[in-house]
Amino acid sequence: MASLHHDSTCEHEQPVDAGTSGGLAPWRERLAKQMLLDHLAEGIPVARLAEACALSRSHFARAFKCSTGMTPQDWLRQQRLARAKELIRTSDLSLTRIGLECGFYDQAHFSRLFTRAEGVNPMSWRLIGE
Asked: What residues of the chain score a pLDDT lower than 50?
């Protein structure tokens, strides 16, 4: 019977302590998250995040996922959606403008990802919140 090799340095389902998991050091995680937030609208290449953390691109990507439970791109998408929800709740900006300010390619892209995450489109979500 064949045995499967399991890499125990990182459990991908849950964020874990970087000290024992192969994840990012706390300062690197904070730096990467802040850089992602600073570039919310336009995005930032993973290679640039890795360089700022003095890690190779592949090591950074793996360690980020170990630390947060998601890829840098997924974490950024989650932050974009959170910012969009905040703007929908607190501003009168059009949904098109909100989508663009949060880094989505266009209204359709924003609406598709928002609906997938929230189970309802942004306009309905705005109306429910009123």
From this structure: 1-8, 12-20
